[in-house]
Automatic annotation (TrEMBL):
Name of protein: LALA0S02e00474g1_1
Originating organism: Lachancea lanzarotensis
Pfam family, one: DENND11
Family matches, as PROSITE patterns: DENN (PS50211)
GO cellular component: lipid droplet
UDENN domain ranges (all copies): 31-525
Length: 526
């Protein structure tokens, strides 16, 4: 499939299920550039950095652990996204990205006795302040939208990889004490925030930017541009299977989602999943009174050094004067599996162990979270509709391990329908939301499929919001009660206690109202 080679802006348009794609007027100038190294004697080490005089307050503590996270040594190359807090808060952050490269795996394949002194592990990265423009630069609607801020640093990945490749080739036989950073310095000087930046307009910023090819002499073709994070959505949709739905529901109600990156799993791919979950849970723009709903904040890669910051995040919420306080949600990934043993730091934990292992989700209480039987049926219809293929028997058998057992109530009702109609009819709760699905077009490229999938999930949010709002407006009591059929109308499982709890939680989160679901009754047989 083809890749969309330009940065793009997804906005829910006035027409249902449609999006607008646009380009930024300029890249965010670099606030800091740095190089980290894994040294066999020192461990992770920040060996060089340069910060713009216009951004002097960027804390670089533990940057070496963000750019060389635990487990990345299993990969020859990888890309790591991360954030740096401003003023001890995750609500306002710097965004960063680093590119990791090592020769250790190649050396180990050539000999049984590896000389550790010959191993070179480097990570070159940059840090951006997306709010620099508010100091006087003409405003850009592209960066007015938070999700575009989330990927602002990723626009530099191609340059960073090119710079690191050429630099490492020239420094291959030079000791760490004599490394030359002139290549990085000249690139930084051409792309950093400068005192006069605040008086420049967007077109000038765009024209003054210099790509790495200017300094390395190796121009890249347009087709080689690094793919956007959102383009990985189809891969994650296939890998997670029906578990995409409980993750999406956790993101909707702004839970704290932690992703454990298993051995050999790419941080770049997991960072992309972090971004995809944030996008799928966005409040669509067609909801007129949804401006208050902020996107789920991606923290990208975190580690042991972030534990204290996460504890402060919890403590700040608990210290509020409101008895019904909520801890602000986020989605992040980590290679430090020890964070899984700190349940006070997350609400939902997803463990990814590799292509051959099934993903696993659990709550902070230690309970396994699975998809519902209805979500299995829904997934089996979405795959051919959007990805263009039918699930094999082996694939269905595999993902069945990710599904909750069928309840006794559903078993009885399904059996009654089969007996009463000789198998010709099924209960209404088996009907999926075909009105939100699109016809498959085998000629579509990946980005068109991605946009369709995002549109599907946003369509479900819009429908759930509207039906909840109508139910609350028609109810006169403080506690509004709905029937299980209400769940069916919103593509939820009317037999799942988890979906009952989700509906009550999302009602409280969106409308600050109490909602209850009645128990299963015989109306489902009608």
């Amino acid at each position: 499939m083809q890749q969309y080679v330009k940065p793009f802006d997804l906005r829910f348009d006035t027409k249902p299920q449609s999006f607008r794609i646009s380009e930024p007027s300029h890249r965010v100038p670099i606030s800091c550039i740095f190089l980290c190294q894994f040294d066999v004697k020192k461990g992770n080490d920040l060996v060089w950095s340069k910060t713009s005089p216009s951004s002097p307050n960027i804390p670089l503590d533990n940057l070496e652990f963000k750019s060389i996270p635990s487990g990345i040594h299993e990969k020859h190359k990888d890309v790591v996204s991360f954030v740096i807090r401003k003023q001890d808060s995750f609500e306002d952050v710097f965004y960063g990205v680093s590119c990791f490269e090592q020769n250790g795996l190649a050396l180990s394949g050539e000999t049984d006795q590896l000389d550790r002194s010959e191993v070179r592990m480097y990570s070159l990265g940059i840090v951006l302040d997306v709010n620099f423009r508010y100091k006087g630069v003409s405003k850009s609607k592209y960066y007015d939208w938070k999700p575009n801020q989330f990927v602002s640093a990723a626009e530099y990945i191609d340059d960073i990889q090119d710079l690191l490749l050429h630099w490492s080739q020239k420094q291959a036989n030079i000791t760490s004490e004599n490394l030359n950073y002139e290549l990085f310095e000249t690139y930084f000087e051409s792309n950093c925030i400068k005192p006069e930046t605040a008086s420049l307009s967007s077109p000038i910023l765009r024209q003054s930017w210099q790509s790495s090819a200017t300094f390395t002499g190796s121009p890249r073709v347009l087709q080689d541009k690094h793919p956007h994070m959102l383009e990985s959505l189809t891969q994650w949709f296939s890998f997670l299977g029906p578990l995409i739905f409980p993750l999406w529901k956790a993101a909707i109600v702004r839970r704290r989602i932690l992703i454990i990156v298993g051995d050999g799993v790419s941080f770049e791919k997991c960072n992309a999943l972090v971004y995809c979950l944030s996008i799928l849970s966005l409040f669509p723009h067609n909801i007129s009174d949804g401006d208050h709903e902020q996107p789920l904040q991606p923290l990208y890669t975190i580690g042991i050094t972030d534990i204290e910051a996460l504890r402060q995040h919890v403590a700040r919420a608990m210290s509020s004067q409101n008895d019904n306080f909520e801890i602000s949600g986020f989605v992040a990934c980590t290679g430090d599996a020890i964070l899984e043993d700190r349940p006070e730091l997350y609400d939902v934990c997803l463990r990814i162990n590799g292509d051959d292992s099934l993903p696993h989700i659990k709550s902070s209480e230690g309970n396994t979270i699975k998809a519902t039987p209805h979500e299995l049926e829904l997934y089996q219809k979405l795959v051919p509709s959007y990805l263009g293929y039918e699930l094999s028997h082996e694939e269905v058998e595999k993902i069945n391990q990710l599904i909750e057992p069928t309840t006794w109530s559903q078993y009885v009702i399904d059996g009654f329908y089969w007996w009463a109609t000789a198998g010709y009819m099924k209960p209404s709760y088996h009907k999926s939301d075909e009105d939100l699905m699109t016809e498959v077009d085998l000629e579509r490229d990946n980005i068109e499929i991605v946009l369709s999938l995002v549109g599907y999930f946003h369509g479900r949010i819009s429908r759930l919001y509207d039906t909840l709002k109508n139910a609350l407006e028609s109810g006169e009591e403080d506690i509004v009660t709905v029937s299980p059929i209400f769940l069916t109308a919103n593509s939820l499982d009317c037999f799942s206690q988890g979906d009952y709890d989700f509906l009550s939680l999302v009602c409280r989160h969106w409308f600050n109202r109490v909602l209850q679901v009645r128990s299963i009754d015989c109306k489902l047989l009608c």
